[in-house]
Amino acid sequence: STQDLDHQLGIRLNPSTAFHPQTDGQSKIANKAIKQYLPHFIRHHQNELLPNSEFSHDNQDQISTCISPFKENYGFKLSYSRVPSPEQFLPAVKEHLKKLSEVQE
């Protein structure tokens, strides 16, 4: 039976329902972590920052698995430079200066 196979493979099932998805507190812990860092990404330009928030979360080792969701899915951990390359940075600066000029006019 499936239960015997699960037992032999060391799989511990925790069935849940749509109304009570937390079976081991893992969802509660994940939600707490997201509540802590998400406010730092919600600002005037939040649409630009939320992908960084998702990247940060997906690249952070989780307490329950001791591995990041990204590494768990793809087999490697992403790394990136916090300093944008000139190609990435200059268009944003130009756009910002353009907006400042428009406001001043």
UniProtKB/TrEMBL annotation:
Any GO MF annotation of the entry: nucleic acid binding
UniProt name for this protein: Integrase catalytic domain-containing protein
Species name: Puccinia sorghi
Lineage start: Eukaryota, Fungi, Dikarya, Basidiomycota, Pucciniomycotina
